[in-house]
Amino acid sequence: MLSTLSIAPDVGDAFLRAAEAAHQVGSPQQFFVWLRLHFYRFLPHDLALMRIDAGRHGGRQAHVLNCVPLPKGVEDELADAGTRLWAALAEAWSQAGERAVQVDLRSPPFAAIGPAQQLSDSGFDHALVHALRHFSGQGEEVLVAFFRQRADDAPMGDNARCALDLWMPYLRFALSRVYGGGAGAVDARSRGRGEGPGAKPLTDRELQVLSAVREAKANAQIAVMLGISPLTVKNHLRSIQKKLGARNRAHAVAEAMSRRLIN
């Protein structure tokens, strides 16, 4: 179970600015800049691997975003979405209960995979991996891995895993804008209400509650604003989290913003 990510007020403001900036990403260059200027504060990294399912016509695409030189030939291997390394990353995420997980490239099965060993030899021993399934539940729509190169490359810890967990909806949204992935395949009219295959829409009241949470209002404050009891607010939040597949109120806000349910 992941620990709770504690966000100070100034960091919270940075998170909201970064979340809003994700909606302006429209090209690979802008996505790279967004990662470096905004996302990097929450999850420092020197190499990012992104695999997105671009749908029936685009298939799976792998993208390599590196800030440091990579061994000769390894970038081509990493950019092949069908290699053993990508399969191993997906399997590690699945075995971790489909939560953010750190993998050690020096350990099986990565120790027997050529590109993983090339990365390890270059100082990338650990990767933080996460993914999101298609709304249909069939396969991963987005799979990401973040590496940090340093002499004492060490585990990134619970805070990094919590941060990545919180950021995944935004990564999916930005990647879908840039590469036309499956995240953009859900009809826009449905996305506006949070609907997808098998999903339930949020009610007007739930959207009001979620908007208040977005403004950092406590349950008691929301109750006064909407003329309902704090217990009713709590019940609404429980329903919102269930519909959005969110683990807490912060994750619910992140998911709702990525789907453009709230501003």
Structure description:
47% of the residues lie in helices and 13% in strands. It has two domains: 9-185, Beta-Lactamase; 189-258, Winged helix-like DNA-binding domain superfamily/Winged helix DNA-binding domain (Arc Repressor Mutant, subunit A, Orthogonal Bundle). The protein contains twelve helices and five strands. A hairpin with a 6-residue loop joins β4 and β5 (140-147). α11 (230-244) packs across α12.
List descriptors.
263 residues, alpha+beta, Beta-Lactamase, Arc Repressor Mutant, subunit A, 2 domains, five-stranded antiparallel sheet, 5 strands
Topology:
Elements: H1 9-22, H2 28-37, E1 47-53, H3 55-58, E2 60-66, H4 74-78, H5 84-95, E3 101-104, H6 114-121, E4 126-133, E5 140-147, H7 157-179, H8 188-191, H9 204-214, H10 219-226, H11 230-244, H12 249-258
Antiparallel strand pairs: 1-2, 1-5, 3-4, 4-5
Helix pairs in contact: 7-12, 9-11, 9-12, 10-11, 11-12
Summary of the model, kept short:
The protein folds into two domains: 9-185, Beta-Lactamase; 189-258, Winged helix-like DNA-binding domain superfamily/Winged helix DNA-binding domain (Arc Repressor Mutant, subunit A, Orthogonal Bundle), CATH 1.10.10. It contains twelve helices and five strands. It has helices spanning 9-22, 28-37, 55-58, 74-78, 84-95, 114-121, 157-179, 188-191, 204-214, 219-226, 230-244, 249-258; strands spanning 47-53, 60-66, 101-104, 126-133, 140-147.
